[in-house]
# Entry
Amino acid sequence: MSKFSSFNFSGHKALIRVDFNVPLDTNYSITDDTRMRATIPTIKKILGDGGSVILMSHLGRPKDGPTDKYSLKHLVKHLYELLNDGHANPAFGDGSTRVFFADNCIGEQAALTASMLKPGEVLLLENLRFYKEEEKGDEAFAEKLSKLGDVYVNDAFGTAHRAHASTAVIAQFFPAEKRMFGLLMEGEVVSAEKVLHGAEKPFTAIIGGAKVSDKILIIENLLQRATDIIIGGGMAYTFMKARGGKIGSSLCEDDRLQTAMDILEQAKQKGVSIHLPEDSVIADKFAADANTDVRPSDAIPDGWMGLDIGPKATGIFSEVIGKSKTVLWNGPMGVFEMEKFQAGTKAIAEAVAASTAHGAFSLVGGGDSVAVVNKFNLASKVSYVSTGGGAMLEYFEGKTLPGIAAIKE
Ligand code: AMP
# Structure
């Protein structure tokens, strides 16, 4: 693979897999363009070098071939505006970046438009998932796509855990020096590798959220790497019950009690400290207007449930985070969507920010952790916020992501 930032794209046609899977309203207006904006630096670097850009993406989940609803043509105008600093009217010949659209991603029109593309121009291809071959990882389809450009850039980390034609299979049709990660994907990969393979110790992983079953693989992988694992959120109560605690009607997966015991045992053997919340904010119902109290997490009265970590737990967790050189955070400490149960998550967010300010490397991400970051305005105060969702979760689980492997191999 080559390094994107040091590659000179002059005279090259870069075929970029982007994630333009943006939400559209019923008038086909984009309601959140974060994913499009995120990849603009990658596109601009190539155009600035004197290269041209061919963009391919999926949009939604079309079931039976081409559908107007899922056409990427709805994105052309906005893409033009993003590339031309907000100017709305494509007036060709005025020095603006031209954006073409091909109403297919393979075939004659796509091939012809791609071949005629001049340096500084952009071509957006129609939805890859109009072909079943995309998600099946079909080689012949991937090879057809590969013919459109001479350099392959993957900037769609969000789909890196899928072995699809455009995200992984296609890479083999480019020589090693002509395939690379885009700037967005490079940021995700570098941060994830830094935490999982080059973490400075003490390394604390904070794992929260609803269910143990969703996070078992992550915890097992982190047991090999972290010095401390903080477990909060609904999943903590399965651990509490496994240790013989009374958890009232808190969230619990009874079929995972043995798993929880196994994790605690493994941690002991490996010398990893697992921190469970000593106390909890409890509620008499799962509602914003519930009555609340604070109790030890292993002595919750019947009919009450733990919906946030308590003040003692918050203090202990913050102290552990404060001593860390590397912090990985996935999942809230409580039902942070409700005001009465957000204090724990907010305090942990502040502890992660403070630790980062003192020089720790902190990565927040996986699943919907980005919602937590946004709610508590944490984005600029941690080292890296991953938008990789499911792909980042699989990376934390220790899996090899096909989209990463395909570029590197
Ligand atoms: P996850 O997607 O697994 O990261 O879980 C996030 C969800 O877990 C959020 O919607 C939280 O409201 C929920 N959650 C966190 N703590 C608890 C808890 N103690 N009881 C029930 N749900 C919780």
